[in-house]
Records
---
Amino acid sequence: MVERAELGSRKSAVLHAIVEEYVRSGEPVGSETIAERAGIGVSSATIRNEMAALEELGYLTHPHTSAGRIPTDIGYRHYVDSLPAGGRLRDAQRRAIASYFAEAILDLEEVLKGSVQLLSRLTQYAGLAVPPSVADEPIVRLELIDMGPTMMVLAVGQHGRVDKRILDRPESLDDRALRETERRLAELRGMTYTEAQAKLLKLAAEDAREHRDLLLDVAETLRTAQHGESGGHVVVGGVSNLADEAQAWRRETLRRLFETLEREQEIMHVLQDVSAGSAGLAVTIGTEHPSTGEWDASLVTAPFRVGDTTLGTIGVVGPTRMDYLSAMASVRAVARRLSELATELDG
Amino acid sequence: MVERAELGSRKSAVLHAIVEEYVRSGEPVGSETIAERAGIGVSSATIRNEMAALEELGYLTHPHTSAGRIPTDIGYRHYVDSLPAGGRLRDAQRRAIASYFAEAILDLEEVLKGSVQLLSRLTQYAGLAVPPSVADEPIVRLELIDMGPTMMVLAVGQHGRVDKRILDRPESLDDRALRETERRLAELRGMTYTEAQAKLLKLAAEDAREHRDLLLDVAETLRTAQHGESGGHVVVGGVSNLADEAQAWRRETLRRLFETLEREQEIMHVLQDVSAGSAGLAVTIGTEHPSTGEWDASLVTAPFRVGDTTLGTIGVVGPTRMDYLSAMASVRAVARRLSELATELDG
DNA sequence: TGTTAGCACTCCGGCTGCGGGAGTGCTACG
DNA sequence: CGTAGCACTCCCGCAGCCGGAGTGCTAACA
């Protein structure tokens, strides 16, 4: 990372004006346009000097000699970093959020699906969310269900998570043994997924009998539940927004983006990656992250939490030429509401 | 629908050749190209006459006077209808299918997800599936789970379907009443979802006590489980294929297509609609269906079944300029394997 | 020293005109 | 009925040209 000196306040103002104008119009912006904007009060010639300097510093580029300027990723970065903390929502947006959270929905998974939809409608980008991990959640039910030739392992978490897995039922496992095993599993209630998994592995190791494999299978069910491998469990919504004509993505780039959005594991890691650094709102712009760089995309994410523990992450993906101000305000507002709701459900 | 006379066998051959060539190249095909193809043995001038006739009959169009011909939806329809029943899979495809179904997966929902992925890889289009309705499936578990201030209704079906719903726990419902209600629910085991739902409504009607709402809520859970409203439950995969550069969709059309693919209810109805008419493989081309017409798309679907009862539908969506032969072969093969697997799991 | 007016210069994008080529439809002939 | 031949149509790519938007530089000014 190159060390960059603080920009003068006029340079900063020019950069802001360019970013905003470019985000609005989608076209390279010229010095004249900026000079005419109220608030800078300086001629286009001066703006041209500033622009040349900003380009020298890496904040702007040209598509060609006689075109206007467009922001680089670094330009967007500076713009975002120097944004006032409290971006404002439009009234309609505020109302949409309020009315969504006014409905009493008790299931956090459902709420997340809805929130992602909501965000995608608010921002016109695609919404994403990583749901809470169940690792530290107490188990309230752990059952083996007889299903004829097969059987189901069913785990229910304190906060409403349900996981299942279907297994072959070994011939050696008669009804008595099934009930016996189920009784042993019932003893694990109240433990967290992690604890229960460890306990099962221990039991299986001690247990030379034939139920060993069964215990291992149950442990495996708990493991995948924690890592979200069974079904991925990243929530994605509003991807059709990304195919909008206004978004100037190349076809191939768009394809790759969709491809990644289908690989839930990957998306999950990206989201965890980008939100790891910061405690609140995190913005990742284009090439700043290897994955998002591949598709010219930016991410705006925020964690939702109960007290000090982070439950998950919610946010949007869009083009680098994104309306960051509005996206940040929307994501922040939704994340806050989610935190409130989660706190309430928890209590 | 205009009544169309049987095409002569040469006209039909010409139409076939044009469809296949156009699907391959994506460009309007000229009389010369067809004449050079082995199998017709007639000069380009003759082909031109045939083409003019086919255009007159509505099977072909021109983009402009001096361009080659492209098939209309009606042209594709005739092509598809006169295709030999057994399209052949390439060896690699056959192997991919075999190896997928060789893995022992016991959960039909998981299998469907995988099958849809498989189909999308085989065909390079997007895969779709409607899972079995749970309406006539016996319930093996129906539980109320205490979750502190809330509680969960949990229903498990004979074939592995799990549904849940989280409810507010009324203050009036103490632990004793909860267990009492749970005992009553346990009596519904063995009934199908439909039966259990009806029974619950009846119980609620007779029951003047305060648990009435609770019973209604449980009934509602069973209802949405049947109609797939909770989560939609259409399985979609490989949508990134649709954004491939080779597919000549306009941006706006693509957007609408993605939009529909996100509305699971709608997709489900479309699929049920198109597969309703036929007992086996069904092909819907472009404007033949109001929905698919909106996005220039074609659907190839097939039911999977156990014995005589249809469980669900699986298929692909792609552009009208689709490789129908290969898509049909893939869908047919996967549907057959699914039926076999379902029969096995059932037995 | 910073700002500004002026100006030459660059380069894109749209318009025009011009073949070349692909493909058609028609006609006349075997 | 099929085919060879041919005139005709229309797209598409290319070259050249112009107008305009926007730049960078210079010189003058506060």
---
Amino acid sequence: MRQSQLFTKTRREAPSDEVSKNAQLLIRAGYIHKEMAGVYSYLPLGLKVLNKIENIIRKEMDKIGREILMPSLSLQDPWKQTGRLDTVDVLMRTVGANELSLAKSDVSYVLNYSHEEIVTPIAQDHRQSYKDFPFALYQIQTKFRNEARAKSGILRGREFRMKDLYSFHCDEEDLLAYYEKAKESYRAVFDGVGIGKDTFITLASGGDFTTGFSHEFQTVCEAGEDTIYLDRANNIAYNKEVVTEENAKKLSVDFDSMEQVKACEVGNIFPLNIKFSKAFNYTYKNEKGEDQLVYMGCYGIGPSRVMGIIVEKLSDDKGLVWPKSVAPFAAHIVSLGDSEEVKKEAEELYSTLVAQGVAVLWDDTDRRAGEKFADSDLLGLPLRVVVSEKTLAAGAYECVERASGTTTQKTQSELTDYLAHA
RNA sequence: CGGGCUGUAGUAUACCGGUAGUACGCAUGCAUGGGGUGCAUGUAGACCGGGUUCGAUUCCCGGCAGCCCGACCA
């Protein structure tokens, strides 16, 4: 698209109330707008990135489950059955569809917190025979948690995006087999969005969900809230919360020899076993016609948090740096000066790329070179293509990779070729 | 939820017990055109409530909001 048509503008300074790198850069570059503590609107550029991340997740999830959409405001009855109305502090509760309340006493509705209570009856409604198993359902939706302290920009909001996947099995063995498949899918997701090599499966306490360990996907990042003990040789990590002498024995590991690093939890998977099926008395008939409790697993990824982590990890002092897979545009054409030849050339290049289906942003504004470059750096698109009198004379565009800073000269056919393979 | 800090144009900030200055932005014009260019003109502001005071944006109290530390957190 033409930058002159872009809704947002960049700004030089970040708001003084934002300290986190991700919020500062995303706001300066016009990707998000802050509504209140822990709540951000996603502007056109930010929404593009978020959608790309979610589509990468969708692509992997579709291989192992079916997408559905569950309500974000739900009646309390299912929640009564699991007792979580009383145990979860960050629930946003309402007394009616339009009356918000945080009091535990007068609850009629619960705002989307997590969906075990919703998905279990849905599954129960359609699948009661052993022949129907296994299966898995997932959704991507906005979630609400009444965090006592929202922080770190989009890393920990009170409203955020979340994908949750739920799997249903006849027995524990099948659940665990699927659990391993889910791990592989998760790896593919994090590889896909460009943070795979710094993301480690991490043993964590299961919290309310399981008596054993759950598995977190932790991305090494200074902005993270967790500390993990990293065993790089074995490509596994341990959340500090499970680092005890007892666990060292149980797992036969030596925590002292491991590297301690800050990390951010970008995904988490749990073997729920029969916790929720028991609460809802969700059983299936086996071959002998006997009722058996269903085994469940749940698997979460926060796309908005993933977006924040990408910013935290990859951006530099000049601005954002997006991996090609999630960038809002593949290339940024920057035309300089006001010569008619340059304008014509840029227009022609832009039309050609658009016709080829390349997502390209063209800075067609009448601004000075310095401002355009600074803007371009801030926006963080993977490739900058400069069109100017210089490049016309040279017969090739000046192409700069945002991530590496590598500059090359490319003719139009070389450029289209490059973008086709990017 | 405890503790701390902070609320001044759209943004970033300064000063002040006698109602505010700068920069960016925005608007207009001229110049300029490869790293947020220069000049000129214009635009726009004290979170809310109460108290002290002749007078409060400034001091005090309360509220609200934001940030940070901790607690919490699938």
---
Amino acid sequence: MAKDTCTRIVEAAMELFWLKGYGSTSIADILSRSQVNSGSLYYFFPGKQDLLVAVLEAYRDGIGPALLEPVWNGIDDPIERIFALLGSYRRALVETDYTYGCPIGSLALELHEPDESVRLLLAANFEAWIGAVEQCLGMAADRFSAGTDFRALAELTLNVMEGGVMQARTFRDIGHFDRAVAQLRTHVDSLAARESA
Amino acid sequence: MAKDTCTRIVEAAMELFWLKGYGSTSIADILSRSQVNSGSLYYFFPGKQDLLVAVLEAYRDGIGPALLEPVWNGIDDPIERIFALLGSYRRALVETDYTYGCPIGSLALELHEPDESVRLLLAANFEAWIGAVEQCLGMAADRFSAGTDFRALAELTLNVMEGGVMQARTFRDIGHFDRAVAQLRTHVDSLAARESA
DNA sequence: TTGACCCTTGATTGAACGTTCAACTAATCA
DNA sequence: TGATTAGTTGAACGTTCAATCAAGGGTCAA
């Protein structure tokens, strides 16, 4: 059986919102990419914003299986998993010539006054990402001193990724991403050294 | 003499692009806020994008006099100047109930395939900000070891600000901003301690 | 007084937008 | 067979958008 209409719509919207943003993606864009007629789209989704909600839910549910698992496959060390995750964003930037960054970050800054449901889903996406990094840090807890704030460090990691993507795209220079990651590495090593040394 | 038409247009556009973003701000919005008629706007600016260019030039030229100088007035220590700058973004977030973030960061992520002239102006804005922070670090060079990468640290500072704004807005929780700044403080102190200790 | 120049006016244009809807098809069940 | 339901179709609608333009006001030098 071919992918059903609803799935095709959401997948097309995920791709286009990622590529062009929400406002710049028209319903017509989504229709032509998904090969669906407008009536069918509005049969499943009352409006454009409901489609955005479905997209954000799909992203959230995909963070584990579609983002983390492929990256972490074959990597056991929890700290290296964090830097491998950052490396996957780096790779996307380079391979797509700075076209694809982080879809959630872009949407979070593009939508200036989002509906509460949209805002909460953006937050849920960040939360899933931060939570995964925080868990990695927790698995390496023995390398850090007792009071280390893993939550804050995980949030900083998100900032390094989002900021690195933003700068690298704007300057069209991956060095901005690499330097941010290098600073994070220094910071993490510094926090770890206090204990292990 | 009253402010001339051209100035009123640019100031209205700066405000609206900051508040609502580029795509969501219509020419009609700018006209009604600046109390100008469409013909006058198009007399000075061939199109909407030319207005964006003017706005980005105005932001760039205002980073020193309109952003840094007010914040740094009365603060001499170069490291404290950096954290005071971050504090000014924190204050804007809290005082406007997460309405106003960083206008450049929002535009940089909103505009997915900007014209080269726009991209270069976004980069010029970031560059001015990073450069100012880098200069502060340079003034405190004696507190760091010789090989310290001030450029990378300044870029990380921008990431902490932009990422902090993004997270605080999305979660509607200033704690995300504060924790990022606290991590940066720890990192800076750690780099400084190696030398001064 | 004249005319050239700079700037303003606001109705108007046509394209693009999100959305609607009545008609249609195909499969399911009584 | 006939009724019901689920899903599809694409033309059409009203709105909003960026952009245009013919007309004209204000100023100043000649």
